[in-house]
Amino acid sequence: ISKGYHPMCDGVALQGLKLIGRSLVRAVENGDDLAARSDMMMAASMGAVAFQKGLGVCHSLAHPLSTIAGLHHGLANAIMLPYVLAFNHTVAAERLADVAEALTGERKGEAAKIISAMNARLGIPARLSEVGVLREQIPALTEQAFEDACHLLNPRPVAKEDLRALYEAAI
Fold first, then answer.
1. Which stretch of 8-12, 128-132, 145-149, 167-171 has the lowest confidence by average pLDDT?
2. Is 61 in contact with 73 (CB distance < 8 Å)?
């Protein structure tokens, strides 16, 4: 079994992604849509179950963005996720195709681009610089991210230079 793969957690995660694909934008654009909000509540619970297998480099990058740059953890993850998905694509293409299919209902398109488009529709900035993160913070961010154990379970091995490069790409 490849690193980061867990059949039960992955199944729960994919079902949660299906709910997100059909309901996240609706829930944000119309807070009175109780069906969409219920789907998102269930998706959040499913995400909590799914991450019992471990997290990955996105969380290792997000944690210091909260402690050093003051970003909300969810926002930090949302901004970094497309960059991380692109980084992991070389070793997880089939699994990311499953993610794309769960979100859109079609087995086409790249998960990173789908998430980027969803972020844009929801008003989530595409760049860390848009939320006040400074290029000068990257060395400290990189050091803390490397010390964070979440990246040890990433499907693609992560070196300190990879973390720096991901921050650089996102700045």
1. 8-12
2. no
92 three-state secondary structure: helix
| CB atoms closer than 10 angstroms to residue 11 | 12
Task: State the Cα–Cα distance between residues 76 and 71, nearest whole angstrom.
Answer: 6
Quote the tokens at residue 163. 């973390």
Residue 120 token pair? 């844009």
pLDDT 10s digits, 39-96: 999 999 999 998 877 789 999 999 999 999 999 999 999 999 999 999 999 999 999 9
Q: Containing H/E element for 53?
A: none
CB 39 within 8 A of CB 27: yes
- Token pair recorded at residue 83: 């960059």
Cβ distance 59 to 81 under 8 Å? no
Structure tokens, 32: 């009175």
Residue linked to tokens 């953890």: 73
Q: Per the structure block, which two tokens stand in for 25? A: 């934008």
Q: What is the pLDDT of residue 1?
A: 38
| Residue 117, number of CB atoms within 10 A of its CB | 14
